[in-house]
Amino acid sequence: MAYRVLIAQFMHETNTFSKLPTTLEDYRKRWLIEGEAMVPRFTGTRNEVGGYIDSVKKYGWQPVWAGAANATPSGKLTKECWETIRDMIVGAAKKAGKLDAICLSLHGAAVTETEDDAEGALLEALRGIVGTDIPVVATLDLHANATLKMAKHANALVSYRTYPHIDGYERAAQVAALVQEALEGRKKPRCLLVQPAMLEGADHGRTTQPGLMRDLLARADAFEKEPGINVVSVQAGFTWADIPYTGPSVAVSYEPEAEARAKAVAAAMLDEIWKRRNESSSDYRPISDAIAAAKAGVGKDGPLVVADGTDNPGGGGYNDTTPVLQALIDAKVENVAVGTIFDPGTVQQAIKAGVGATIDIVLGGHTDPSMGGPVKAKALVRMLSDGSFKNDGPMNAGVETSMGPTAVLRIGGIDVVTISNRIQTIDLQVFLSQGIDPRTKSVVVVKSVQHFRAAYAPIAREIVLVDSGGICSPDITRLKFTKLRRPIWPLDGVNDPYAGVRA
Ligand SMILES: [Zn+2]
Fold first, then answer.
1. Which class in CATH covers the domain with range 4-275?
2. What is the rounded distance in angstroms from the CA atom of residue 128 to the CA atom of residue 143?
């Protein structure tokens, strides 16, 4: 008899400081797919669901496809949104009859109007149906704010080991291999989690250069070779969440006989995160530095890539702040491509006017004008489209994405990809699908803090990460935490990583 394995995805990185609630409509814009319709959508892709689809074939499982839900990071999920997605997955588990295992693709930093720990609540609900005897294993984003509840109800939590995240497929394959061993009775995995009294750490998980996160992962790799240690996952955490569980953590999946060793492994990892808490590779600079680099690079090969990291929609940024665009206009920089500005109203205005028309625009800056108001300018409508494309990768290779109705607007020497669905600029197709070749531009602006590097670093002449005053500011003193566990580093005078650790 083939093993019956339920597979589901629920992804969201919730920025609780965002004023924009996350609704079912936001999920539909990315994907909200019920049941086995998730299979054709992700077959051949390099994300976690693609990994599970291939694993089902590899191990000959009888799959129960519960559904897949993913939305661009934004504010708390509405009650209706959360309950609909939860009920889709939990309902599938109830209907499935006897199950032998559950494999999930979770983010680990979802917050709803009613749940500070949505993934913990989902895992608990699933456990309530299937009991404690079958393996329930989940992949997590490297930026999960993982919780003791998640660890209690999972047999393993397996986080990405790359940032940019290009190993979703591999992590799902790792989950599936562990589940298969458990199904065959060769393993009995359990999971433990430790979380230091730290709001941020592990260099926010950056793996593009040698340093702390790569060192941590090398240690995790070595620990995983020990007998009885199945998985050692490092979650860097997602800072912009006012919940008790925000911050880095370490999850260890282990065999019952290795429990003491697993605790020692987790403690060793946590100690290193704590000792090296001041190490950061982030290099935010003022917009004026980007303008100076743009002017200095005129005529040189390859674009200057300006990363507008504090308005990164991948961290809940509004995707519509304008200070970088305004500065480029003011400085009369030419041969620029900006991707993207979220402004569905201006897109509709452009659609009405048609390609070739010149229109007076009031672009972007609408969500929170205190972060820089709209750009007022004359713009030529260069191209209109439905904004859909298939990612080239390496991140999300093969996955279909939609920016919604999209207009390319030219302001002076600047092409602005103006969109109707918020989306982080990860893939070159954000521009290529709009008739713009970023490799031929002098300056390319991306709304991203780190993920853009996978596709854009290879074409960039230079990269400048700017702080434009967006919601994802690295200055955490701007954030007002009310639910966070305290005391916590670096907000409070903490000398002990175990201070205030929740039991
Ligand atoms: Zn992440």
1. alpha beta
2. 27
C-alpha to C-alpha distance for 445 and 308, rounded to whole angstroms: 7
Centre of ligand 1 from the C-alpha of residue 143, in Å: 4
Burial 8-37 (b: 16+ CB within 10 A, else e): bbbbbbbbbbbebebbbebbebbbbbbeee
Amino acid making up residue 155:
N
What is the 150 CA–ligand 1 centroid distance (Å)? 17
Model pLDDT for residues 17-37, shown as the tens digit of each residue: 999 999 999 999 999 999 999
CB 88 within 8 A of CB 34: yes
For residue 385, the cross-strand partners are 406
Cα–Cα distance measured from residue 22 to residue 16, given in angstroms and rounded to the nearest whole number: 10
Rg (CA), the chain: 23
What distance in Å separates the CA atoms of residue 319 and residue 175, rounded to the nearest whole number?
Answer: 34
* Cβ atoms of 206 and 450 closer than 8 Å: yes
Residue 376 — φ and ψ, nearest 5°? -105, 120
d(CA 10, CA 109): 11
CA torsion angle 374 378 380 381 (round to 10): 40
Distance CA 80, CA 474 (A): 32
Q: How far is the CA of 195 from the centre of ligand 1 (A)?
A: 18
Q: Which residues surround ligand 1, an ion (CB under 5 A)?
A: 141-143
Q: What is the pLDDT of residues 152-177, one digit of tens each?
A: 999 999 999 999 999 999 999 999 99
**What is the enclosing helix (H) or strand (E) of 28?**
helix 24-30
The domain ranges of the chain are 4-275, 287-473
